[in-house]
Write a structure and sequence with these properties.
Oligomer: single chain
Bound molecules: (2S)-amino(hydroxy)ethanoic acid, manganese (II) ion
Mean pLDDT: 97
CATH superfamily of the largest domain: Zn peptidases
Length: about 425
C-alpha cells in the first residue's frame, strides 16, 4: 500500500486492551493498581517484556545510558529521522494501570497494526520508554527525558538517590539497562505521546480526545524546618520551638498561595517526615516536599517568592530555622502546532469528540518538545483520578486514543515523509 495518502488504518482494540491487562500483572496491587517503581526488578521485568515484544515485530531496539528504550520499525527512507511515540512504564507507589503505560503500549499497538497491514511508512516509526518519568523513587520527575533534552546533566541524574541511598546509576547497572547509546543521540522527526488526562475535564465534558496544546510549568522544593526537641509534658506552649507546628502553618500557606493564584495554580505537599518521631517529644526537625504548578512561569516566580516570604515570617515568629531549597524548575511548554494539527486531523477522521487543552501533569513529551516537534493526545480517566490504584479508563477510550495516535503519526509521515 503506497503512503502517498494517509491510510484509514485502525488499531486492534481488543489486542491493546489485552496487552494493558497482561502487563498490569507486573507489580499488581491488591486494590487493582500497579506498584512498579522505576529501576526495580519489576521495572526490569516489564522492560524485558517490552523489548521482547518489539524485537518479535522486527524492530531494532537500542538503550541509552539513562535506560531509555528506543524500538525502531524500518520505513522506506531509512536514513531519515523517525516519527516517534511513547511514554513511561514506571509507576507511582499507588499507581494505576494506565498512567504512562497506555502511551507505551499504544505505541506497540501502532507498530503491530502497521505490521499486520503490511504498511510501509515513508519514515521509520519508533516507540520509546522513558526512564523515571514519575520522579517518585528518584526526584525529579521526567529525569531521563530531561537529560535527553539537555535540561538535566547525566552525572546529576546518575547521582539521584532513593530513600535507601541507592543511586540511579547503580540501579540502571543492576537491572542491566545502563545502555551504550549516548543520551540525546537519538533524533526524532516528531514525537507524539498518548496519555490519560489525569484530571476531570474530558470526562465532565463527555469528550473522548484531548488535543493537548500546552503543558504547565512546575517548581519542586525540599524544605526543612528545625526547632527543638523537648518534653511534651514539661515544656510550656510559649517556650516551644515546635517544628511540626511550623511545618503545618507552612503547608497551609502553600495551599493559600495556590488559591491566591486561582484558577490554574496548584500547590501540593506530598511527603512530610519528622526526624526521630516520638509521641511525647515535641518535633525538632521536619523535612517535607512542596511543589507549585501553573501554565505561566511568571506566576510560578511570584508563587515561589510568596513561599519564601511566608517561610521567613513563620520562622521568625516561632523561633525556627526554615530552609526552602528549590530542586527543580520545569518551564511551561507550548507544543508544536504542526503536531497538534496532526492530532486534530486524526481525531476528526474518526469523528471522535475532542477539545484543545493544557496538560496539568508533566510528561516526557514536555521535555522532548525541546528537541523535536511534539504534541500529546489525552483520553479521559474515571473521575479524573490518577496516581491512585483506582485509576481507570474504558476499553473504548483507550482504543480511541491509540487510533488517534496511529493516524496522527501517519498524517505527519504523509506530510513530512
Ligand atoms: O508529576 C507529574 O506531573 C507526572 O505525572 N509524573
Ligand atoms: Mn505519566
Ligand atoms: Mn504519573
Amino acid at each position: 500500500m503506497s503512503s502517498a495518502q494517509s491510510p484509514n488504518l485502525s488499531i486492534n482494540a481488543q489486542r491493546l486492551w489485552d496487552t494493558l491487562m497482561e502487563t498490569a500483572k507486573i507489580g499488581a496491587t491488591p486494590k487493582g493498581g500497579i506498584k512498579r517503581l522505576t529501576l526495580t526488578d519489576l521495572d526490569k521485568q516489564v522492560r524485558d517484556w517490552f523489548v521482547a515484544q518489539c524485537e518479535a515485530l522486527g524492530c531494532t531496539v537500542s538503550v541509552d545510558a539513562m535506560g531509555n528504550i528506543f524500538a525502531l520499525r524500518a520505513g522506506r527512507n531509512g536514513d531519515l529521522a523517525p516519527i516517534a511515540c511513547g511514554s513511561h512504564l514506571d509507576t507511582q507507589p499507588t499507581g494505576g494501570k494506565f498512567d504512562g503505560i497506555l502511551g507505551v503500549l499504544a505505541g506497540l499497538e501502532v507498530l503491530r497494526t502497521l505490521d499486520e497491514a503490511g504498511y510501509e511508512t515513508n519514515r521509520p516509526f519508533m516507540v520509546t520508554n522513558w526512564t523515571n518519568e514519575e520522579g517518585s523513587r528518584f526526584a525529579p520527575a521526567m529525569l531521563s527525558s530531561g537529560v535527553y533534552a539537555g535540561a538535566l546533566d547525566l552525572d546529576y541524574a546518575y547521582g539521584r538517590t532513593d530513600k535507601d541511598g541507592a543511586t540511579v546509576g547503580e540501579e540502571l547497572e543492576r537491572i542491566g539497562y545502563k545502555g551504550d547509546a549516548l543520551v540525546g543521540d537519538q533524533d526524532f522527526h516528531a514525537f507524539f505521546e498518548l496519555h490519560i488526562e489525569q484530571g476531570p475535564i474530558l470526562e465532565a465534558e463527555d469528550t473522548v480526545i484531548g488535543v493537548v496544546t500546552d503543558g504547565q510549568g512546575q517548581r519542586w522544593f525540599n524544605c526543612t524546618v528545625v526547632g527543638r526537641e523537648s518534653h511534651a509534658g514539661t515544656t510550656p506552649m510559649p517556650l516551644r520551638k515546635d517544628a511540626l507546628a511550623g511545618t503545618s502553618e507552612l503547608v497551609l500557606a502553600i495551599e493559600q498561595i495556590a488559591k491566591d493564584n486561582a484558577p490554574f495554580a496548584v500547590g501540593t505537599v506530598g511527603v512530610v517526615e519528622i526526624a526521630e518521631p516520638s509521641r511525647n517529644v515535641i518535633p525538632g526537625t521536619v523535612d517535607f516536599t512542596a511543589e507549585f504548578r501553573h501554565p505561566s512561569d511568571a506566576v510560578l516566580d511570584r508563587m515561589t517568592d510568596a513561599l519564601r516570604v511566608r517561610a521567613a515570617e513563620i520562622a521568625d515568629r516561632r523561633g525556627l530555622d526554615i530552609t526552602v531549597d528549590a530542586i527543580w524548575d520545569y518551564a511551561a511548554v507550548k507544543f508544536d502546532r504542526g503536531c497538534v494539527a496532526a492530532v486534530q486531523e486524526a481525531a476528526d477522521s474518526f469523528g471522535y469528540s475532542n477539545r484543545e487543552m493544557v496538560s496539568g501533569a508533566g510528561h516526557d513529551a514536555c521535555y522532548v518538545n525541546r528537541r523535536a516537534p511534539t504534541s500529546m493526545v489525552f483520553i479521559p480517566c474515571k473521575d479524573g483520578i490518577s496516581h491512585n490504584e483506582l485509576e481507570d479508563a474504558t476499553f473504548e477510550d483507550c482504543a480511541a486514543g491509540a487510533n488517534v495516535l496511529l493516524r496522527a503519526m501517519l498524517a505527519y509521515d504523509r506530510d513530512h515523509g
